[in-house]
């Protein structure tokens, strides 16, 4: 087995040489250095998948640590590298790798980010980067992966540990709300939900399963950056799930060919309520919820 982390300036040839001995089954996870992406990497490695892990530029050391731990613990092959998904060149690197693979069994389109704040006050470059990473990159990577998966099916290759090939697109429970103080982020997740629903139907008879994963509150670095350190009472009060729990539920749903995965009973109930509640009641409920989290976004006088 081998583990190799390559930095963003590594060529596609460098990366291809690092995975030349990787054999099926293969899973590719984006945003794999922390959070839900790391949870998927751990789950897939435990289930015997050889991994190609991608993280954003600047997280090479974190990714190297994750890769080494997974390879040592699960005896799988792990290749990892960084790429900037906000640029066409960064996405090109990933799609070029995918197109050269003999087969791809699982794709987890997990990479994404958001930045809370009032829409018209945010830097338009940041908002454009959110669109690039959450929508354009995920779409391009899925577009590159499908022909490779179909080729493997047509060749009669091993279907992998889960007896299927699958694409998991990370959306969010936020798609069931009418508003969040992170408008562009939420809108990208709405796109991924609709995209996944339609793609699942289009591929229904091909042997490729598509899932849209809509987790609720999950213990990730996003909340640490907001000031919620480990041990903060908010995690217990609002029943945050762990990345491992989210990944476990998602894979269980993929095995059962369920297109929509909302992990956790509380999240399912919340999605149902938010999908059916009148708007006036929703705004009252959601405003109270955000105040409870201490992160409500207030408009200044004159806005």
Describe this structure in words.
By secondary structure, this protein is of the alpha/beta class. The protein has one domain (3-293): Rossmann fold. Helices cover 49% and strands 13% of the residues. It is built from eleven helices and eight strands. The chain has helices at residues 12-18, 35-46, 60-74, 88-100, 124-154, 183-202, 221-225, 234-237, 243-255, 265-276, 279-293, and strands at 3-6, 26-30, 50-55, 78-82, 106-109, 165-170, 208-213, 260-261. Helix 5 (124-154) links the parallel strand 5 (106-109) and strand 6. Helix 2 crosses helix 9 and helix 5 packs parallel to helix 6 (183-202).
Number of domains: 1
Secondary-structure element pattern, one letter each: EHEHEHEHEHEHEHHHEHH
CATH topology term: Rossmann fold
Terminal CA distance: 58 Å
Strand order of the largest sheet: 1-4-3-2-5-6-7-8
CATH superfamily: NAD(P)-binding Rossmann-like Domain
The biggest sheet amounts to: 8 strands, parallel
Range of strand content:
5-15%
Assign the structural class, choosing from mainly alpha, mainly beta, alpha/beta, alpha+beta, or little secondary structure: alpha/beta
The DSSP helix count reads 11
- Count of distinct strands: 8
Radius of gyration, CA atoms, in whole angstroms? 19 Å
CATH class: Alpha Beta
What is the arithmetic mean of pLDDT?
88
CATH architecture annotation name = 3-Layer(aba) Sandwich
What would you call the shape?
Answer: globular
Percent helix, as a range, is: 40-55%
Which residues form runs of ≥5 with pLDDT under 50?
295-303
């Amino acid at each position: 087995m081998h583990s190799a982390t390559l930095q963003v300036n590594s060529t596609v040839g460098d990366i291809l040489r690092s995975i030349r001995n990787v054999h099926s089954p293969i899973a590719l996870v984006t945003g794999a250095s922390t959070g839900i992406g790391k949870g998927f990497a751990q789950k897939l490695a435990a289930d015997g998948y050889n991994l190609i892990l991608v993280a954003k530029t600047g997280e090479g050391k974190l990714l190297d640590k994750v890769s080494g731990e997974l390879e040592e613990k699960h005896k799988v092959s792990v290749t990892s590298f960084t790429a900037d998904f906000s640029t066409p060149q960064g996405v090109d690197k990933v799609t070029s790798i995918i197109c050269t693979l003999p087969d791809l069994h699982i794709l987890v389109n997990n990479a994404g980010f958001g930045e809370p704040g009032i829409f018209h006050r945010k830097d338009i470059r940041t908002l454009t980067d959110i669109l690039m990473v959450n929508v354009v990159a995920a779409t391009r990577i899925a577009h590159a992966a499908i022909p490779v998966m179909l080729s493997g099916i047509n060749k009669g290759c091993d279907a992998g540990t889960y007896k299927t090939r699958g694409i998991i697109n990370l959306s969010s429970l936020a798609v069931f709300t009418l508003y969040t103080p992170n408008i562009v982020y939420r809108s990208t997740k709405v796109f991924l939900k609709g995209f996944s629903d339609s793609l699942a139907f289009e591929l229904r008879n091909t042997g490729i399963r598509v899932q849209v994963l809509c987790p609720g509150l999950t213990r990730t670095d996003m909340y640490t950056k907001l000031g919620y350190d480990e041990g903060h009472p908010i995690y217990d009060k609002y029943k945050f799930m762990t990345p491992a729990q989210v990944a476990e539920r998602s894979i269980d749903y993929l095995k059962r060919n369920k297109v929509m995965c909302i992990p956790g009973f509380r999240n399912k109930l919340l999605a149902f309520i938010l999908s059916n509640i009148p708007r006036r009641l929703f705004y009252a409920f959601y405003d109270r919820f955000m105040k409870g989290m201490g992160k409500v976004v207030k408009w200044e006088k004159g806005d």
